[in-house]
Design brief:
With about 325 residues, the protein is of the alpha/beta class. It has eleven helices and ten strands. It has an eight-stranded parallel β-barrel, surrounded by five helices. It is globular.
């Protein structure tokens, strides 16, 4: 495979760092949330972002879409993606698209469709969601045949609402359910293949892939091979939980490989941050993560896609590690 001509990288972030991220011990959050206009101002002031993600219906909805669109324009920011937040709605606590109650499944479908309309009104191109409540916690809890039939039908019904907005599915092994049906890259590809609509793709959340035990570069390649790599979230963790930490705080080489493959396949989408800085300064968290990604991008440019591809032909991990680390850290 000949490396593609890389597109200009665009960087974005969800605005969660400037909200009030909390955990089950600090449910009210570790700090007060800023109003949306102030979150956008903070994002702009960093000078490292080209766009942002917004959440429907909490940050933007049908009532304030026109005003939010104006705020984005005034800030000089694009809408990278709209998250439909389907997994934090109490109505869907026992399943959204896989609920045994047809009225609940219908409400979930209507919820995401409404998000698609808001996305289009904002001039956006894609929505995404992860089916975090669609799964199980116990053996013999669900009928997998029913669940998968409803999930495929539900995604298909959502996507059929309009073709000018891409529908992106985000996989994750667990949380909030102990086992989520859409758990890894292979399962996600299986679902979109069954849905069989061109504007349905997959979000590669690097943190979710790490806790799924995936090789990030391979996940990029598999999604590209199937023409389903729709959006990318960058975050970091220790591999046991979705910690949503500063990018590069734990992993180095897996991210080097991931960005190499993103550039090699000619990924032209966004590099977007999905971070939850509970106790850390939001500005530092976002800017440090973006600067890390830019440094890795520059490192790969410095070494050269062709040179890294040539290294792979040796099948020698130690050789590749030496060459990359020599350029990155100045060590032999």
């Amino acid at each position: 495979m000949t490396p593609a001509t890389p597109a200009k990288t665009r960087y974005a972030a969800a605005l969660i760092p400037w909200s009030s991220p909390g955990d089950r011990f600090m449910r009210a959050g570790y700090r007060d949330a800023l109003p949306l206009p102030e979150r956008l101002q903070r994002a702009v002031a960093l000078g490292v972002l080209d766009g942002v993600e917004l959440r429907f219906p909490y940050e933007v909805n049908a009532e304030n879409a026109a005003e939010v669109k104006r705020q984005l324009s005034d800030a000089g920011l694009s809408l990278a993606a709209l998250g439909t937040s389907i997994s934090i709605d109490r109505r869907f606590g026992k399943g959204a698209l896989t609920s045994r109650d047809p009225a609940v499944r219908g409400a979930a479908i209507a919820h995401v469709r409404a998000g698609m309309d808001v996305c289009a009104a904002l001039g956006g191109e894609r929505i995404y969601f992860f089916l975090g409540q669609d799964g199980c916690d116990y053996a013999l809890e669900v009928d997998y045949e029913d669940a998968w039939n409803w999930m495929v039908e539900g995604v298909r019904e959502i996507a059929s609402h309009r073709r000018d907005v891409e529908v992106c599915l985000e996989y994750k092994p667990f949380e909030p359910r102990r086992h989520i049906f859409l758990s890894d890259v292979g399962t996600a590809l299986h679902l979109v293949r069954e849905v069989n609509l061109d504007h349905v793709g997959v979000v590669l959340d690097m943190g979710h892939a790490l806790i799924a035990g995936e090789n990030l570069g391979e996940s990029v390649w598999l999604l590209h091979r199937a023409n389903r790599l729709a959006f990318v979230h960058f975050t970091d963790n220790y591999g046991a939980w979705d910690d949503d930490m500063i990018v590069g705080s734990v992993h180095l080489m897996p991210f080097v490989e991931a960005i190499y493959w993103l550039k090699r396949v000619g990924y032209a989408g966004w590099y977007s941050l999905d971070l939850f800085p509970y106790r850390e300064d939001p500005d530092v968290t976002v800017s440090q993560s973006i600067n890390f990604l830019k440094r890795l991008d520059a490192l790969i440019e410095d070494i050269g896609l062709e040179q890294i591809t040539a290294l792979l032909q040796h099948g020698d991990g130690a050789l590749s590690l030496r060459e990359v680390m020599r350029r990155a850290l100045g060590v032999a």
